[in-house]
Amino acid sequence: MAERHNRRRRPKGASLRGRRFEVLVGPVAHGGHCVARIAELGDRVVFVRHALPGERVVVEVTEGTEGDRFLRGDAVDVLVRSEARVEAPCPVAGPGGCGGCDFQHVALPEQRALKTAVVLEQLHRIGRLPSDHPALAGFEVVAVPGDRDGLRWRSRSTFVTDSEGRRGMRRHRSHEVVPVEDCLIAAPHARQPGEGGPEVVTERVVGAGSVRTFQVASDGFWQVHPGAPAVLVDTVLELLAPRAGEQVLDLYAGVGLFSAFLADAVGADGAVLAVEGGRSAVEHARANLADLPWAVAEAGDVAQVLAQREAAADVVVLDPPRAGAKREVIEQVLRRRPRAVALVACDPAALARDVGIFRESGWELSALRGFDLFPMTHHVECVALLTKAGPGPR
């Protein structure tokens, strides 16, 4: 078995890398590219970056062989342009350049329309939601305050250095470094983890009509768009509508962003249990919640903590990593029969999978919000409200 696992993947025929084909670009797909088909290769699918739906482009294959089911490529020449195409503000944002931004060639309103289409497509295809589902009516990804026309929003940026010591970013799906003197989506004073400076930073959040400050490790997780924490807090509170005296579970709680405002909402007669796997984050969460003794932060794997504790829950916040909450955690949540769950998701495919798991258990998507927290990239943040279908459990 060891030999089998150590075998290298064999190419499926001759490489097509560098070959160029003229294609009509089809719909946007999850991952920052559009779908097209190459007629000369029997309508082989190619995922094209730097293109827009409806355009006719020359695509240069960047990955794939004659035997692969699909190829990857860059639009290196645009023959028929979309009206939504603009000149990319960054000189290294195009084919062969920095892999950080997918949509600099797209006008901001169209970027958000593309992200809206991706979220809906993933929920239809993976989550099995019908196109006329009431929670999807009027759904759109919207802007949030804090960027300058989609630029200068990223409060933390991670650079790498090339063989000559120059600062840069990696090419798309590559370890090769592209020199970048000025990243245009980075805020003027963006921090780079590991570059020195304070080990702990303080972030201020205005949410639910009040102001709170949070300690965060300089290399720990915090939303990088300046408008993100407040808009996510306000959305979670709006959708869950926590009541005085309720029991709250905040899962994948980080440094306690949601926990603090939820604890304010349920008051001293309620209780908040924040569970987070990162021990450093939990230490900061305990400091951030010190004035709210009915809010407790516990370190540990979320699934294991839930399996070991019979903590009650009226409402639950799930803010998992990109891969999603997954079945084991969702089933543990549902055993507690909460009246509502707010699912915060940064990946549309993971969101759709998790929503599908809830629906298998008789729960339904009741509301959905989408936010453009990562302009110029394909990434998007969503908050979903899930409730028990039919009469509630309480």
Structure description:
This protein is α/β, with parallel strands linked by helices and 394 residues long. The protein is 22% helix and 30% strand. It has 8 helices and 20 strands. It has helices at residues 2-6, 108-125, 228-240, 257-266, 279-288, 302-308, 326-335, 348-360; strands spanning 20-29, 33-38, 44-49, 56-63, 70-80, 141-142, 154-156, 160-161, 167-170, 177-179, 186-191, 200-207, 210-217, 247-251, 271-276, 295-299, 315-318, 340-345, 363-371, 381-388. Strands 6-19-20-18-17-14-15-16 form an 8-stranded mixed β-sheet, sandwiched between helices. Helix 2 (108-125) packs parallel to helix 8. The termini are far apart. The relative contact order is 0.11.
Salient structural properties:
disordered N terminus; 8-stranded mixed β-sheet; 8 helices; 5-stranded mixed β-barrel; single chain
